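Priority: medium. Attachment 1 of 2:
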């Protein structure tokens, strides 16, 4: 009876449990893309994701629909999805936007990050160094995502975090291709610079370190596209 009081003609009420499940599946698939678990050229089926998450195909299809609309995924066949091809023009556009937005977020983080946040970054940095030394690409990419997004969350803006996540959904799968170039070692030098700048609350220094990291990856990827 209580629920009936909220019903209005022409308004469809979606059960909360179903909506929550769809959001949870969307978040899981998003994490797989952001931490490099879905590799360019790899096809993933709706059923395989549904089985992995222990859900029906319906919430998986909804998550994939949202991610396809965001240019993070593309339909390869009727039941399979993959990472969209990266053109030179799209790579340049992503680099240019990341160059501005991520630098802003990092500068804000320098003003707002606390000692606990600095300690967490130090832990992520240690994993990055270990993974690079071991040649463990998957662990490196997970730690890279965790390191960067710890900084962006420290900026204290949900809006800028959402923008950066959308950018990373489009570019981060291609970080898998950077290992053979030695970029992970170069990136860790930039990560060390970011960490030092944030520890010193130096907004300009962390802005420069973020931009150097973005440019180093861009240079490798643009050469690979040739």
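Attachment 2 of 2:
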């Amino acid at each position: 009876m209580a629920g009936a009081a909220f019903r209005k003609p022409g308004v469809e009420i979606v059960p909360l449990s179903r909506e929550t499940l769809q959001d949870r599946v969307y978040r899981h698939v998003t994490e797989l893309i952001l931490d490099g678990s879905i590799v360019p050229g790899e096809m993933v089926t709706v059923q395989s994701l549904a089985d992995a998450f222990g859900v029906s195909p319906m919430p998986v299809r909804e998550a994939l629909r949202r991610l396809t609309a965001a240019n993070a995924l593309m339909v390869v066949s009727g039941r399979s999805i993959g990472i969209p091809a990266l053109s030179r023009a799209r790579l340049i556009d992503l680099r240019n936007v990341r160059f501005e937005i991520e630098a802003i977020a990092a500068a804000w983080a320098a003003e707002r990050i606390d000692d606990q946040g600095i300690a967490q970054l130090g832990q992520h940095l240690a994993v990055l160094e270990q993974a690079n030394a071991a040649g463990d690409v998957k662990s490196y990419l997970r730690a890279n995502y965790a390191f960067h997004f710890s900084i962006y969350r420290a900026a204290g803006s949900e809006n800028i975090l959402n923008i950066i996540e959308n950018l990373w959904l489009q570019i981060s799968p291609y970080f898998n291709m950077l290992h053979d170039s030695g970029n992970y070692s170069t990136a860790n030098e930039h990560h060390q610079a970011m960490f030092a700048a944030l520890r010193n609350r130096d907004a300009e220094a962390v802005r420069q370190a973020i931009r150097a990291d973005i440019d180093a990856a861009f240079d490798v990827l643009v050469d690979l596209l040739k």
